[in-house]
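Because discrete structure vocabularies remain unfamiliar, we first show an illustrative case, written as a sequence plus integers encoding its fold.
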Amino acid sequence: MSESVPNNNLPQKRQGLISSAFSLLGKIIALLFTSLFLSLLIEWIGIAIFWPELGAEHSRQMMRAELQWFSHDFTRSLLISEPLQQAEFLLERSYYWLFVKTGIAGWISNIKTSDNQNLSYALYYYFDAYIHATLYITMTFILRLTLLVLTMPLFGLSVLVGLVDGLVRRDIRRFGSGYESGFIYHHAKRTIGPIFITAWLLYLALPFSVHPNVILLPGALGLGLAVSITTGAFKKYL
């Protein structure tokens, strides 16, 4: 009785341009939702264990600190003319659609003005800090995401510098007798995506406020270095 053996040499179907774009978009959305969930989870755990006396005040201070970065250090951008005004507009619209349009703000207002201490009353006053912390963390997440979008030219410039530097070193190695290592190329290539994702994920999910340059500048430098090493170690002859 003959057994069917799978043919591993069959050519695999390559994704088209549209499917690749949708796949990339799905990964970006998954990364953003993961970052937001981690931010909320860390804040809820902090309220329950680490800073119960602060409650939602901890997340409110984070949101105010993020706004200060915009007003003091990010007054100009290559993408938009007035970053602070745009950030405040995004906060207003996000608050409207996430908390006013969904009825959450009205529910809280009705509980505060009601004298009937029912189940909703008890739930609100038990989870008061968590509800307001969710609001502040979501606003902080939107501010940080806006800042990341505005700093995309930094990562693009870092990739461009790394690409040029790598191509120059590759040409020097190509026309000389430089050593060629596929091991370095493949391992450096695998670090490009994780460096970029880690910088975004770490900044978006941080449970405290820190100046964006502390995370974004090392992330951009690491990305440029990985691109430079990958390009410089690319094989000399195609």
About this structure: The mean pLDDT is 81. The two ends are 46 Å apart (CA to CA).
